[in-house]
Amino acid sequence: MPGASLVLTVDVEEWFHVCGHPVYDVPERWESFPSRVVPSTGRILELLERTSSHATFFVLGWVARRYPDLVRRIAEGGHEVACHGDLHRRANTMTEQEFRADVRAAKASLEEAGGTRVTAYRAPEWSLRSTSSPHLSTLVEEGFRVDSSLLAVPPIGEPGNPRVPTVLSTSAGDLLEVPPLVGTLFGWPAMLGGGWTSRFSREARVTAAVEAALSRGESPVLYLHPWEVDEEHPSMELSPIARLVHFGARGRVVPRLSRLLARHRSVSLAEAFPAGCVHREVAA
Ligand SMILES: [Zn+2]
């Protein structure tokens, strides 16, 4: 088993891909919003290049069809191209047929654009929710080897979801579940791998959780979105809480990530978990 590594993941979507929002969650309107995904993803790619780091980029099929050059640039940078679904629909709101059609369309668009095989999936908003999701076996049937969609933090996920990379035995075969870094805040489980709870946490707390995972031989998985690093992010119609979740402490993302990558070069999920290699195995 190789040593543990810092794993970086990026959910490549536009700033307006907000599940359930009455204004933004309407695919027919997406062409009318200013696109920011190419320059903001480019900022992340440049940061990775400066630190000789790699990442897994979970890209929407919709983005791949509009900007195939971006997907090609990701692949040519030595990064892993992975799947964030096609139209950023929550997985747990789709029937089995709808979910299969969504991931199949996205995978085809991503493989055509990037020229690489796509075998890792992350649901929008961690929306597989639980190891009992029937969509996990659909992922195996559709050619996926790795999922990174389960969070052990209620109410978004179940407390019993894996906190370390774990092989789930589905009816269609094994699927490696790789969750994001989870720690504790005020005694409660909290996402430290990314998102607003990580941005609002003290940097020392996040860094300590990363170092502790590495010292245990567990690869900590961090995540971010291109819109979190966009210095020309358009204004949005959001409730005060949603505004805090989306915009709060965004200015910390790039400086913190730069300092972390200067200490630990990051790798992709494919590099951290070559086929058949995990830290711990349990049945789902
Ligand atoms: Zn997303």
Notes on the structure:
The protein has 284 residues and is of the alpha/beta class. The chain has a single domain (7-281), classed as TIM Barrel (Alpha-Beta Barrel). The protein has helices spanning 37-50, 61-66, 68-76, 96-114, 135-141, 195-200, 203-215, 240-247, 253-263, 269-272; strands spanning 7-12, 56-59, 80-83, 120-121, 146-147, 166-170, 173-177, 182-185, 188-191, 221-224, 280-281. The strands form three sheets. A five-stranded mixed β-sheet has the order 4-5-7-6-11. Strands 3-2-1-10 form a four-stranded parallel β-sheet. A two-stranded antiparallel ribbon has the order 8-9. Helix 3 (68-76) packs across helix 4. It is globular, with a radius of gyration of 17 Å. Bound molecules: zinc ion (ZN). Residues 11, 13, 17, 84, 88, 124 line the site of zinc ion.
Q: Strand order within the widest sheet? A: 4-5-7-6-11
N- to C-terminal separation?
Answer: 22 Å
Strand content: 5-15%
**Can you tell me the number of structural domains?**
1
The ordered string of helix (H) and strand (E) elements is: EHEHHEHEHEEEEEHHEHHHE
CATH architect. name: Alpha-Beta Barrel
Low-confidence stretches: 280-284
Rg result: 17 Å
Question: Into which percent range does the helicity of residues fall?
Answer: 25-40%
Number of strands: 11
What is the multimeric organization of the chains shown? single chain
Spell out the CATH superfamily.
Glycoside hydrolase/deacetylase
Task: Give the class from helix and strand content and strand pairing.
Answer: alpha/beta
- By CATH reckoning, the class would read Alpha Beta
Overall pLDDT confidence? 93
CATH topology: TIM Barrel
What is the helix tally?
10
Task: Tell me the overall shape.
Answer: globular
